[in-house]
Amino acid sequence: MRIVVAEDLALLREGLIKILQANAFDVVAAVDNGPSLIQALTTHRPDVAIVDVRLPPTFTDEGLRAAIHARKQLPGLPIVVLSQYVEQLYARELISDRAGAVGYLLKDRVMAVGQFVDTVRQVAAGNTIMDPDVVAALLTHRSADPQLLALTPREHEVLSLMAQGRSNAAIAAQMFVSEKAVSKHSYKIFTKLGLEPSENDNRRILAVLAYLEG
Amino acid sequence: MGLLGWSLVLLLGAALGFGLATLWITSVALVALGVTIPLTLLATVLVRWFADLHRQWAADRLGEPVARPYAPAPEGRWPMRFWAVLRDPATWRDWAWLVVNSVTGWFTYGLSLLLFLCGIFYLIYPLLYELTPPQVLRTPLGNGFRLRSVQQSFALVPLGPVLLALWYTTAVRLANLNALLIRSLLGPTEQARLRARVQQLATSRAETVDTQAGELRRIERDLHDGAQARLVSLGMSLGLAEQMLHDDPQAVQRMLAEAREATTDALAELRDLVRGIHPPVLADRGLDGALRALALVNPTPTTVVTRLPGRLPAPVEAAAYFAVTEALSNAIKHAGARSIHIEVEFTPHPGGSAGILTMRVSDDGHGGADVDAGTGLRGIARRLAAFDGNLTVDSPPGGPTEIRMSLPCASS
Predict the structure, then answer these.
(1) Contact of B24 with B152, CB cutoff 8 Å
(2) Considering only the top CATH level, what class is A2-130?
(3) What is the per-residue pLDDT for B305?
(4) How far is B385 from B370, CA to CA, in rounded Å?
(5) How many C-beta atoms surround the C-beta of residue B346 within 10 A?
(6) Which residues of A touch B283 (CB under 8 A)?
(7) A46 and which of A4, A34, A37, B321 could share a cystine (Cβ 3.0–4.6 Å)?
(8) Cβ-defined contact of A111 to B292 (cutoff 8 Å)
(9) Cα(B227)–Cα(B271) distance, rounded to whole angstroms?
């Protein structure tokens, strides 16, 4: 799988490349600023890109803007955005084109290497993955919503994992239940929230995120 | 027309003022007898109230406030207070103004009033001629000019519009002239103004230095007890894992997983700390983006309206952001609000990029917020004072609450 990495701190860039190469990714370009990122994306057209939010020359959200800009030229280009902090505002901007193939994660998550590599593959396959912190913030934001209060703690947990973009299989594994139980929970959640049930993981997460943003 | 009414009121005031001036100076002069200290203090209160009315009037005319120049009154016995009043130059300038005003009032308000009344008088002269007995109003311009019929009296009517036009063109100028006089005598002198400013700057600087030092101490402690300690423990675990690698690989695997958890915790702590120092989203997106990001994750429905021309200077952005955050958390914690509205607006001064940043945080909670009650609002006021900004709270019991904050600044 061909991959472009954008990270300005050499230490972290090398670390990322090592992890990716150890997991059989082909890092075709590694850049350290916004303009070169856009150039690398358009020339290499990778299967997926991993982008740090804060990049030179402005040292603001250059990486995020470059990613959104690149996806306008190459619609649906899979991008995983990494950051030292996550903002609901940025998550919303990233998924606003509803094209999927977006991941938005804290840099900490790279440390769980297996899960991180899985996330990159999922995004490359067109899915949307959100950091648990983003989802937690959204759930706090809607904590007074009567429909959310009507969910059982179990359903709440399933909803939170769905909002992170996990598949039924992954949710089942994490919660130590059967996949069938998860799909039963998810059916009930969608009914309680008044959403159209969907078996497609990407459509499902977008629907749930849209609901939570309310 | 409003000016005309004011002219009458102020003219009467000028006469009344002279009475006050006499009363005051007499009571001061009689202090030797010992009995009139209370009377002087009472007269002073009256004079100051009277001067305040005029300050307000002048401020409305000039479109800018006329500050009260009085030195703060000391607590204590009457002789002390009496002495403080006598030593305050503003007291004597008040008195001088009363005397001056009782004279100049006639030339300004009086003249204005006279022009108007004479204008009307000549305008309706024929009517008055008709209504009055034969001996009255027959020689309007002296004995050499005797009116013999009502037709002749119409010759005086053109004087009416002329005088009214004169009144109309001079009324505003005369009133402004008076307002200027009031400002120069009742407002603070340049020296008093500077003294007050120096006092205010010294206080706000001392508070800023204290706040800064406190913040740095807090950050130091957080780093020392938090992230730093976690890194030390992480290093210890890794050292131990290294040692055990040959003997117990399974235990090492467990230790490495724990070490990873510890790293995540340390990062979360650092993230919170960074947010408290300078939120990254504020650096990325400025005040507008940062406030929107804040509203997005707020459990209480919050709307944000901003009218900003561009990015503001970084220190102003940070001060404004933390002020709004504090006001917001106040509303969430204490007001029991169901919805919150944040409004931020930059108003440029005419002809320049400098201006005033106004922030309003309003909620529909139960009100009763008070600057002096808690540390939250007081803290905001202190932070804003460092920028010459201020904070006002409008929060009647039962709500709603509006916290208004302003910061002078330049925009880029």
Answers:
(1) no
(2) alpha beta
(3) 95
(4) 17
(5) 22
(6) 59-60
(7) A4
(8) no
(9) 10
| Domain boundaries of chain B, sorted by first residue | 2-186, 193-277, 280-410
Say if the Cβ atoms of B264 and A108 lie within 8 Å.
yes
Sort residue B368 into left (φ over 0), alpha (ψ -120 to 50) or beta. Answer: left
d(CA B134, CA A121) in angstroms, rounded, equals 114
B363 vs A198, residue with greater confidence: B363
User: What is the pLDDT, as a whole number, of residue A41?
Assistant: 93
More confident residue, A38 or A201: A38
H helices of B245-361, in order, are 249-277, 280-296, 314-330
Do A53 and A82 meet the contact criterion of CB atoms below 8 Å apart? yes
Would you call B356 helix, strand, or coil by DSSP? Answer: strand
Q: Is the peptide bond before A57 cis (omega within 30 degrees of 0)?
A: yes
B143 token code pair: 């004995």
| Spatial separation of the C-alpha atoms in residues A206 and B6, rounded to whole Å | 68
Could you tell me the mean pLDDT of each successive run of 10 residues in chain B, 412 residues long?
71 77 75 70 84 86 81 76 81 85 80 84 81 72 71 78 84 82 84 85 88 90 88 89 91 91 90 90 92 89 92 91 92 86 90 86 87 80 87 88 89 61
Q: For B280-410, which CATH superfamily applies?
A: Histidine kinase-like ATPase, C-terminal domain (3.30.565.10)
Q: What spatial distance separates the first Cα and last Cα of chain A, rounded to whole Å?
A: 36
Per-residue confidence (pLDDT) for residue B57, from 0 to 100: 84
Q: In this complex, is the C-beta atom of B277 within 8 Å of any C-beta atom belonging to chain A?
A: no
> What's the token pair of residue B100?
């001056």
Q: Is B344:B324 a contact under the CB 8 Å cutoff?
A: yes
Chain segment A144-192, per-residue pLDDT in tens: 888 888 899 999 999 999 999 998 899 999 999 999 999 999 989 998 8
pTM of the model: 0.73
Contact (Cβ atoms closer than 8 angstroms) between residue B395 and residue B401: yes
CA atoms within 13 A on the CB side of A139: 20
Instruction: Please tell me the predicted confidence (pLDDT) of residue B323.
Output: 93
Strands B340-348, B354-363: parallel, antiparallel or unpaired by DSSP? antiparallel
- State the smallest CA–CA distance between residue B299 and chain A in angstroms: 4
Helix, strand or coil, per DSSP, at residue B140:
strand
Kindly list the residues from chain B whose CB atom is less than 8 angstroms away from the CB atom of residue A86: none
CATH 1.10.10.10 for domain A135-213: yes
Domain with CATH 1.10.10.10 in chain A: 135-213
Q: What is the pLDDT of residue B33?
A: 67
Please give the backbone phi and psi of residue B410, each rounded to the nearest 5 degrees, phi first. -110, 150
Q: Which residues pair with A3 in a beta bridge?
A: A27, A48
Of B264, B283, B299, which has the smallest distance from its Cβ to A60's Cβ? Answer: B283
Question: What secondary structure, in 3-state letters, does B339-370 show?
Answer: CEEEEEEEEECCCCCEEEEEEEEEECCCCCCC
Sheet order of strands, B354-363 included? B302-307, B340-348, B354-363, B401-410, B390-394
Size of interface A-B (CB pairs under 8 A): 55
